Amino acid sequence: METTSSDKYVEVGGDFAEIFDQATLLSMLNSHDEAAVALKFHLIMEEFINIWCSKRTYTDDLFAGIDFVPFKTKLAIARNLGLEIGIFKTLDKLNTARNRYSHRLKYNMAANDVESLSALIDNAAPEHPVNSCSSFVIESSGIDPQGRLAKQTHSWNSGNPKKLFIMCVTLTMKTTLWIQKEFDDRGISYTLTTGLPKSINLS
What we know:
Low-confidence stretches: 1-6, 196-203
Number of strands: 4
Largest sheet: 2 strands, antiparallel
Mean pLDDT: 89
Structural class: mainly alpha
Number of helices: 6
Oligomer: single chain
Distance between the termini: 6 Å
Order of helices and strands: EHHHHHEEHE
Shape: globular
Strand order of the largest sheet: 1-4
């Protein structure tokens, strides 16, 4: 099959490899465990904080050699180093939700908390607009247990695990766009891709 430009992709990696880890994102997409998705969402955002703080201070890892630095402490440091206020407020709200999942058995996020978090995401980094959480649609495909091609569409009408995943993807896109511009404007070196465009085998 002849490959067109639309059949190519550039793998995201470099300094952002942990954030865009395919296995992690796929596990989140396929999970029905709300707490597990929320915890991975939180860990992905913590990696953004690590990158921002380390790059802004020109260190390989600002938090290296320290046994444990709480997320809230890292977030405060990131804000002092210039983290966008909307992203800061969103991550603070996410951290509150994460703590509830960690300390309350069978906790499920209430509808008003979901909407509150999604609104913060939608309003964060307004100079880098992406689809709102409620309008974001994720399509996935794979092979079902019977060996047949199966396709799924996940939208805001899905349950909390998919809503959390949609919020994670939306915030990841926004934060990546914001941090790229900040690094470029400040002359901070970083890598976002792992190589040249690759072809997708559609045969």
